[in-house]
């Protein structure tokens, strides 16, 4: 079978959860099938939408260059690059992991070619323009408030105000513009739903939210937990009275992961303990997290980036 995987980033360039998961399943599927990947890169010294190919660990990649794309959702040049790929590769099935930083038109191009589409939901991006239901409040009074649900004007006020002029006399005009932008974005995304043959949700919570709040039919979405290979894991940890209790975090250093809350909670522990923080460092975000640890009476260690195939319990 020919399988075309679509994901908005691919390791080692991008190393967050959905990207690592996509890499793992591609390498496993390639043992029995012909697999290719359509993804993106961000090369500021090349033209936007330039396309190139390379192979990583035996997996052929087609990379579209989008160094300046942020919250856009439809890119004609990306659609064209994807169409050229499916015409040459002729896949039997297309498995989408994420369309952020790519283009929702990929789904329509797949349906024009009459190729079945499976979509794994790694977050809320289809039903939330920013994907996390975590507001980027821009008022100096609130910080990363959880969002109870998508509403066009609320999105404009709480998540897109940072892109407005912020002049008081422009406030309503700017809000109207971004409210309409969000409305059009959500309408365009909802049009994708009938064109996707099956949604996969790796958690029941995610499945239930998409059924309840976004109108995906129960029979159109299937719960399927993530699968991981344990063959590379080496369990060496042994609890000992001579060793402090160890907590670990593995993931990206961004607010939506709540890593700052983990550190703040760990700082309240009075007994001997340590916290190991794994993941690729992220500039000022990581620097701010390190400042949070300055007064810890217990060890908080930033362990750097990891690869699943090399990981062993510390």
């Amino acid at each position: 079978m020919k399988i075309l995987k679509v994901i908005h980033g691919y390791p080692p360039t991008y190393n967050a959860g959905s990207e690592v998961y996509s890499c793992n399943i591609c390498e496993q599927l390639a043992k029995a099938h012909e697999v290719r990947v359509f993804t993106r890169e961000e090369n500021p010294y090349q033209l936007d939408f330039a396309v190139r190919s390379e192979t990583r660990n035996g997996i052929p990649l087609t990379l579209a260059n989008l160094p300046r794309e942020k919250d856009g959702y439809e890119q004609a040049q990306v659609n064209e690059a994807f169409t050229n790929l499916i015409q040459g590769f002729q896949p039997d099935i297309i498995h989408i992991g994420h369309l952020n930083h790519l283009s929702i038109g990929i789904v329509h191009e797949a349906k024009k070619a009459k190729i079945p589409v499976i979509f794994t939901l790694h977050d809320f991006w289809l039903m939330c323009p920013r994907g996390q239901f975590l507001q980027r409040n821009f008022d100096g009074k609130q910080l990363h408030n959880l969002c109870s649900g998508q509403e066009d004007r609320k999105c404009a006020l709480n998540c897109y105000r940072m892109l407005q002029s912020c002049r008081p006399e422009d406030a309503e005009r700017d809000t109207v513009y971004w409210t309409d932008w969000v409305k059009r974005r959500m309408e365009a995304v909802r049009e994708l739903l009938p064109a996707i043959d099956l949604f996969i949700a790796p958690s029941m919570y995610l499945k239930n939210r998409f059924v309840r709040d976004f109108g995906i039919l129960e029979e159109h979405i299937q719960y399927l937990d993530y699968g991981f290979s344990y063959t590379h894991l080496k369990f060496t940890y042994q609890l000992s009275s001579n060793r402090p209790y160890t907590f670990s975090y593995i993931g990206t250093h961004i607010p939506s992961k709540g890593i700052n809350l983990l550190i703040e909670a760990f700082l309240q522990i009075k007994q001997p303990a340590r916290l190991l923080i794994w993941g690729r460092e992220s500039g000022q975000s990581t620097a701010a997290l390190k400042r949070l640890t300055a007064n810890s009476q217990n060890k908080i260690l930033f362990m750097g980036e990891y690869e699943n195939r090399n990981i062993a319990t510390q």
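Helices lie at 17-29, 76-89, 105-112, 152-158, 171-190, 204-214, 259-266, 283-292. The first strand starts at residue 2 and ends at 6.
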